[in-house]
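Record format v2
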Amino acid sequence: MKAEDFITQIKNGKIDVVEHTKKVIEECKKINKEYNYFNVICEKEAIEQAKKVKKDPSGKLAGLPVSVKDCICVKGVDSTAGSRILKGYKPTFDATVIERVKKEGGIIIGKTSQDEFGFGGFSVNVGIDYKIPLNPFDKKRACGGSSGGSGGITQKVDFPHVSLGESTGGSIVNPASFCGVIGLCPTYGRVSRHGLLDYGNSLDKIGPMAKNIEDVALVMEVIAGKDENESTCLDEPVDDYSKQANIDISGMKIGIIKEGFRKGTDKEIEKKIKEKTKELEKAGAEVDEISLKTSIDYGLPTYYMIGTSEASTNLARYCGMRYGKHEKLEGSFNDYFKKVRSRNLGKEVKRRIMLGTFARMAGYRDAYYLKAAKIRTKIIEEYKKAFKKYDILICPTVPILPPNFDDIKKLSVVQNYMIDVLTVGPNLAGLPHMNVPIGFEKDGAGVELPVGMMLIADHLDENSLIRLGSALLK
Amino acid sequence: MKVDKKLIENVADLARLKLTDKEKKEFVNDFKEILDTFSKIDEVDTKNTKESFHPVEIKNRSRDDLVEESLSQEEALSNTKHKKDGYFKGPKAI
């Protein structure tokens, strides 16, 4: 059932919102035992909110269950970004997106599992004591990351549901692809980051993940728009995204990114994307090939230099004094901070803090951080030029089908980072992009797994994503 | 560039991390692999290119200098174990 139809039934009393919420929580608990999609299920808060909605079901999202990536603050509910260093932290306020969802009657059901602070593409880099989410199609495989729990729960449930994910370098579209759902990462600044536990301030975006494109559009209308509490949030009018679904795509100009189909891209994925592209042509879209060499060839190192630099400063605040994990107060300032951080941060977090600290160090700053910031300009220019000719650019979201955990373990550090090769470009350029599940393919082991196509649009043109996405899903 | 234990120790100190010998060894190898691969960025000609610190143009925004509602002292201290007389209590500074 689409969210809109469900909400109508809540409003006219055909579905009892409190009873429904109770059932939803039980179902989530059951799934979670097997798949680890939640770090916390907030039963008490969800039922309280349901009771409020029962009294006043006038909101745009009345009664809709919404799960939230753990890095987004929910008042009174443990919000840890999947890290032991934040264990026990209960925010005293709601993130702007949460405030808006609640105001419209949405029901926050829990905090979803993720790579610690968003540092990963498979959700295997969970914090110390946290569990790894398992792919809904095959438990031996990864959900993708870093919004892995959001992707998994969105696929697994039958009730109407939307998850709020967060992307820095691909963390919405990647798990959406691996879990076979839709994930929309909006334009940088389209949705407020107030109340998000930062990874990289110039890169982070919050966006919806769902099974129906209409649900994605509906939630975007609620969460997007200016926020007095966030200076990088754009003061631009919010479109009626829902109106873009199911309209004709004839005349849309689509560029297929040539570099998306190199040696590292699975043949099954290439085949599926090309098949779907033919269908778009039949529906009247004009399809052409485009080369984005700077973005694909240099995007990955550029992203890791900038992302880790920003992360290394952001994560300096986690030192066991004001919130989260505390240790016994002893020794000097630096001894205490080092003790708290070394005991409670996971390996990938340490690695990225180290890399970012290095890239900003005197003597290396020009060669790494500032060089990357300059290449970022070139990447943005490359996309802006492409959008003079095209409405949408397409390529695979990830170059491979969801891998199994044993294969991930064999990857070196750089091979691990390579999973982001196609997604870092639009993230560096702050462009809205979306994963659309376009079917299934068998991998070498004969397991049927979801394939995702990534659509990229120009700044603030989320409308074109919804329009083309809905055509693809027909 | 030379990546050795000394460099890793220096970076770790700046990052306020205390690494075990095993971690130091691993990070030497990781840094070598990462920096070797990422040295590719040297190929890009950026002579006349300015840095981008944001993907879109961000305008400075200011508000009137008026007192607004904010967290109460009690709320601000609600997540710490280390507090005294309404203040955060930290480790010794000197």
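Residues 5-41 of chain B form one domain.
Chain B touches chain A through 50 residues (CB under 8 Å).
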